[in-house]
């Protein structure tokens, strides 16, 4: 999956969420910047990837068992 972010050179920050399904149990994930823009001082000014969080769901949706919810409610009523 490719994602391209347009920049105008003013220090823009943008959040992006990407969801994907892996092809197998082991899937490589890579982040690549294909631009090589430089300032007059030869300082690179490409987009920066920062604060990356990867989460695995294993295809499961978190669900609370009804008996756990009932137990929590009983505990709360007992405390109050």
TrEMBL record:
Domain of life where this protein originates: Eukaryota
Name under which the protein is recorded: Uncharacterized protein
């Amino acid at each position: 999956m490719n994602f391209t972010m347009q920049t105008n050179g003013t220090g823009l920050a943008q959040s992006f969420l990407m969801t994907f399904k892996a092809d197998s149990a082991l899937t490589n994930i890579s982040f690549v910047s294909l631009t090589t823009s430089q300032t007059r001082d030869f300082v690179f000014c490409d987009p920066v990837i920062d604060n990356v969080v990867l989460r695995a769901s294993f295809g499961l949706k978190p669900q609370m068992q009804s008996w756990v919810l009932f137990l929590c409610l009983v505990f709360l009523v007992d405390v109050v």
